[in-house]
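> example.struct
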């Protein structure tokens, strides 16, 4: 690998004049007025070709108002068509339709009126990899080829195909995946990341103004604001004598008019949520006055107060009263559903359950339905309640029948009552709950209250987010899914599984999901429960975020990628490494997920993460 500092080297995606001339020549020979039988047959053949084309990976975007970036424009040679007749058909079709295909490519279209202007092709979904050399930042591709030799005084990791960098004068600019400077220095006074968006400032006729760019560098807002700040899931702004909020769509949703004596300061602290689909609310504070606001549409749901309001989880808030006490507030559907000084704490672990858990001053619990705002059942004890991700369950005794009953609640309403030769021992998670039978064995019930399998287990773990659980019979450990299907037979001494979220992220059925130990050695199995090689390992540890694992054999210690079993040698099983979406760092060595060494950082200035 080259380590010396060089002149900047870029992959040129700009469509130069030569390419444009080639396209013109390609189209010149076609007589558009031709209406012969032969041309009609050609069109029919083309229709068949397009109908057989897989369009699932193609992104089409039409926006006549968008300011165009430089892009690669393909010629007919790029399609590698051997048949002269087919080439003629494709050339004609380029006047009317979007040619969809080329596996792993993304097509974008800018169209004015009915005329096809441009066809953009990006070669890969893999983002360039940031490297540092002599305190300068550059980028390589997934194979280790230089996209930009280290030249910039700063460079961020690529996000959605673009990266903010700074030149030798510390001025900001933006480059694309080919290393082209698509937003040159001087375009904006300042640029910084806000999630996938970018907050930028530029000189206008009204002075320096701020605006927001989306992930594709289009203006999400006009550059009319004196200041914009990102507050995780909402923007705050100042403009003239106003402060307010801008939502993630770029819409101004809340405004507060200031007086001459007011400070131009607005603060937002939002409630964290356990499910990204939940509506999020936050405390907006302007000049010591606080209120609760919907961070998507700007609806104000509480009265302004000079008291401090503190956000908690899932849109629970508490207001600190003048006497030092707490007034708890729960917000849902743009309404304050509960406001009370009577509790020492208030939580809702899952909005879908519709059950608030309140600790009273007497240190007892109340379980309150968000539908009726009444207790779902009086006198419930904490040890008889099971808070799941979508279902709240509790156990009560039916004295008339002299038997315990398991009551299931969703959205604040009882929807089923269960009785059987079992008791609930673990809550509903990812579609199933663990029950224990009268003989001390375990089983699983689904959210309809039905046993998912007739198998009895002596150990039963909760299901992961992928819908699988490790359980144990008298014969050994195995893996079962929420449909009751056995993935790994119950005949093993131990099983380790990849994280459920990593399994969901891994598209290939060949990816390694399980490490199965018989005797003292592990074998690895794919998502279908099939063994993938003949190798035995002394130990295996799955990465919690990415599809790879560490493995130890008698000969060496390795990092192995889950999708293709590419091996990366490490000095010991306890060696540290860093994993990212498309590369892995071991000490100062960068590897891709095919196990190829793509870069060696021989400096002491490596900054591998943001």
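> example.seq
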């Amino acid at each position: 690998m080259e380590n010396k500092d060089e002149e900047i080297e870029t992959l040129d995606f700009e469509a130069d004049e030569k390419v444009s001339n080639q396209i013109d020549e390609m189209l010149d020979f076609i007589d558009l007025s031709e209406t012969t039988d032969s041309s009609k047959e050609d069109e029919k053949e083309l229709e068949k070709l397009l109908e057989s084309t897989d369009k699932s990976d193609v992104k089409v975007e039409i926006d006549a108002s968008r300011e165009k970036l430089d892009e690669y424009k393909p010629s007919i040679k790029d399609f590698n068509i051997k048949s002269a007749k087919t080439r003629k058909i494709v050339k004609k079709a380029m006047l009317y339709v979007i040619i969809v295909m080329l596996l792993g490519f993304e097509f974008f279209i800018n169209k004015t009126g009915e005329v096809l202007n441009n066809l953009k092709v990006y070669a890969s979904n893999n983002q360039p990899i940031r490297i540092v050399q002599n305190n300068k930042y550059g980028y390589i591709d997934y194979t280790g080829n230089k996209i930009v030799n280290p030249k910039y005084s700063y460079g961020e990791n690529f996000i959605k195909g673009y990266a903010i960098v700074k030149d030798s004068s510390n001025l900001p600019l933006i480059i694309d995946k080919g290393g082209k400077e698509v937003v040159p220095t001087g375009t904006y006074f300042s640029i910084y990341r806000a999630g996938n968006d970018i907050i930028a400032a530029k000189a206008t006729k009204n002075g320096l103004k701020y605006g927001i760019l989306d992930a594709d560098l289009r203006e999400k807002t006009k550059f009319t604001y004196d200041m914009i700040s990102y507050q995780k899931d909402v923007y705050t702004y100042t403009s003239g004598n106003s402060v307010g909020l801008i939502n993630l769509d770029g819409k101004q949703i809340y405004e507060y008019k200031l007086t001459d004596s007011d400070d131009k300061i607005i603060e937002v602290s939002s409630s964290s949520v356990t499910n990204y689909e939940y509506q999020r609310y936050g405390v907006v504070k302007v000049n010591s006055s606080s209120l609760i606001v919907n961070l998507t549409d700007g609806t104000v749901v509480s009265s302004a107060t000079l008291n401090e309001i503190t956000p908690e989880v899932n849109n629970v808030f508490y207001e600190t009263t003048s006497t030092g006490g707490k007034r708890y507030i729960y917000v849902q559907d743009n309404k304050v559903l509960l406001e009370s000084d009577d509790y020492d704490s208030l939580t809702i672990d899952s909005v879908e359950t519709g059950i608030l858990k309140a600790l009273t001053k007497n240190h007892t619990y109340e379980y309150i339905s968000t539908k009726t705002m009444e207790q779902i059942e009086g006198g419930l004890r904490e040890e008889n309640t099971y808070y799941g991700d979508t279902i709240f369950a509790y156990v009560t005794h039916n004295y008339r029948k002299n038997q315990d009953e398991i009551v299931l609640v969703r959205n604040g309403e009882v929807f089923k009552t269960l009785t059987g030769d079992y008791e609930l021992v673990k809550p509903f998670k990812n579609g199933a709950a663990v029950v224990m039978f009268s003989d001390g064995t375990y089983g699983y019930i689904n959210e309809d209250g039905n046993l998912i399998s007739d198998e009895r287990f002596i150990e039963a773990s909760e299901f992961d987010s992928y819908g699988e659980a490790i359980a144990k019979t008298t014969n050994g450990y195995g893996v079962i899914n929420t449909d009751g299907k056995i993935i790994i037979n119950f005949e093993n001494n131990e099983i380790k599984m990849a994280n459920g979220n990593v399994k969901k992220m891994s598209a290939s059925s060949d990816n390694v999901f399980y490490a199965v130990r018989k005797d003292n050695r592990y074998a690895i199995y794919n998502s279908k429960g099939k063994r993938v090689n003949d190798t035995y390992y002394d130990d295996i540890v799955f990465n919690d975020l990415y599809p790879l694992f560490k493995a130890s054999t008698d000969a060496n210690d390795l990092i192995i990628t889950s999708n293709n079993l590419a091996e990366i040698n490490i000095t010991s099983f306890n060696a540290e490494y860093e994993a990212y979406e498309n590369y892995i760092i071991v000490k100062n060595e960068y590897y891709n997920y095919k196990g190829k060494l793509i870069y060696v950082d021989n400096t002491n200035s490596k900054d591998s993460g943001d």
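> remarks
The radius of gyration is 30 Å.
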